[in-house]
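Assess this one:

_____
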Amino acid sequence: MRRGIAVALTMLLACLGTTVPLGSAHAAPGAPFKLPYPAGSAYTITQTPGSGYSHNDDYNRHAVDFAMPTGTPIVASAAGTVYFEGWSTGGGIMALIDHGNNRCSQYAHLSSTIVDAGQRVAQGQRIGTSGATGNATGPHLHWNIVHCNSQLSREIPDSVETGTNYPTGYAPVSRNGLQTLWPDGERVSDFSGDGKSDVLGVNSSGNLLYYPHNGTGLSSPRQIGQGWGTFKHVMAADWSGDGAADVLGVDGSGRLLYYPNNSYKLTAPTQIGQGWGTFKHVMA
């Protein structure tokens, strides 16, 4: 009877297109980390700690690899301070987040980062996007807990979702999301998605600038657009509902345009209205 139930469940999961080995992982509610991708997402483990392919040396023995397309959002496994971000030999574009006591979570082979060394990040805050930079045979995320100063592998990540058990072929579902700070979940000016209001502005040259809220004030700006000097109205609002503010603007022709916030870079706009040039005030 038990075997029949197990077979039926396996067949059902196969029909749904999800491979979940029965009894392969165990949740650990009190664990210090969460999976390094957004809540609700699931990605297949391609290498587990101690595997013979490349996770068998002093730098990688506790690491976990997840197969995922280039450009997948990567989020902080726990709150901390960015210890390093940039290019590393072998790991390509990489970020290290310091959680204290020389203990860093490592995110390697990224296609980009959106954080700076010394910046505080919250658990679940986006820090970059996945890729295949460095020594990688394909797009994936290399996730590990290392000694910050040496990058030597320190321990198997202990996550809320799976504990320290990461079997190859398993696709665990992440529970890693920022807490909602408002009852309706809206973040009007939170361009970075970390729960704090940022600032967007258009300078005298028509450049659209993003000033991150670093916890105590504003960090140096990043230019995210140009040619905005002719716009009549510019505003930030989470139009897509993903927890990070997008940009809406009324251009010189009176068109209401929506610019999606795609990993903190604005993508091509979509026109969502016209005839807005005569409006005195526009807000979301």
